[in-house]
Amino acid sequence: MSYYGTTVAVLSACLAVAGCANGSVRQAPIAQTDKVVTGSVGGLTSINTNPEILAADARRDAAREDIARARATMLPNVGIEASAGVATGYGDDFDTRTTGNAYSYALRADFPLFQGGRGQAAVAAAKAEYRASGEVANDRRVSAAYELALSLIEVHRQKGAVEILGRQAALLTKLKRGIETEMKAGAASRVDVDDVERQLSRLSVERERARLLIAQASRTALRLGVSPETKLPAVAKLYLPSDEQDLIELAVNNNPRVRERAARADAAKARVSGAKGDLLPTVSAGLSIGGGQDTLPGVDRNVVGRGEVRFSMPIYTGGRVSATIRQRNDENRAAVFEADAARIGVTAAIRTAFDRRAVAGRMFSLAQAERRNAASGLEGVRAERKVGERSTFDEIRAIADLANSEINLNGARFDVIAADYTLAAETGLIGELFGVPLVQQTATTD
């Protein structure tokens, strides 16, 4: 397999960590991933001011106002009305045409006494939607942090590949110089030099391809306002549970997507109650005081006060209310299924990442052994070539085997890191690593 093919395979494996799959999980010892590039979060907090995050916060603030609007339907309404105009009249009561400025005014107050639970249902639905919008903002933070983590992981992965290919090129260059010395003594031919030069040319192409992958992976980091050179924070700071079931329980309770879907289900349930309230009567009270004056003859100034209790009972609505109730029930069922699907999805993601981390850990251990064997093999080939038992091509291939083992080791190391970050994302805690705190709902919702 070419080194570019190996690099692409490693990239695909990293992206596959974000997928979901069901199945049994086998826990295995996790190898220590030494030489991991980690650091502080000082250069990562710019995510908080990213337009995507600010937009989610603005939508959350807008959803908070729905609570006030729903509460307003249960409070009294007070208003004042006034009018003024010009009156004209003709007739037996008027000696001549008379004009004057007519005016009237009224102060009215309406008090809802019973609404069939509509108001309470509207408030409950608004509160649930507000919670859901808060979890959407949290999910946007988690997603941004996870996208950034994968971006930085891939950047560092490909930088490691560039360094490995550079070391391979250095070994081949050293070999070339040795062959040129041997040529002067008649112990090597131009064909050997050509073989090395072909390998060096191919490595130059492979390194440029790796740099292209670095540029592509840097896009997400740049979009989020973070330098692609930023070091990765260590996932160990989160002290995640080591047991798979504990991780699943933490994720189901803390994952923003799960909590958002649960809040949507609560809102849908409240809307069912509101729709059923349309079948119940409403009772309200009204008070008003009004007056007016007209300058036409025979019209006096007047002041009138009025109090009333109003009762309304729907008898036949043409099926509109029953259709609305059925619709709200169907929406409620859909919301419940979506909440279940979110929990199942998060559970599958945790199991996949947990298993992926175990497999990557074993691969890391195997890659370490492969690298030791490749290094030992290269030394053996060099020793045998000095006594004429090996060809130049054998040493070229041994150098390639060493580089390939180092690329496998580099890929396995970052596969473990990617799996750890997936676990951190699914548990909703990844934002803490990147200085992106979850939003706190400070509005009064009780």
TrEMBL record:
Xref: InterPro entries: OMP_efflux (IPR003423), TolC-like (IPR051906)
Location of this chain's protein in the cell: Cell outer membrane
Residues of the signal peptide: 1-23
Superkingdom, natural source: Bacteria
Pfam families to which the protein is assigned, alphabetical: OEP
Keywords, in A-Z order: Cell outer membrane, Membrane, Signal, Transmembrane, Transmembrane beta strand, Transport
Keyword Mitochondrion in record: no
Family statement: Belongs to the outer membrane factor (OMF) (TC 1.B.17) family.
Protein name: TolC family protein
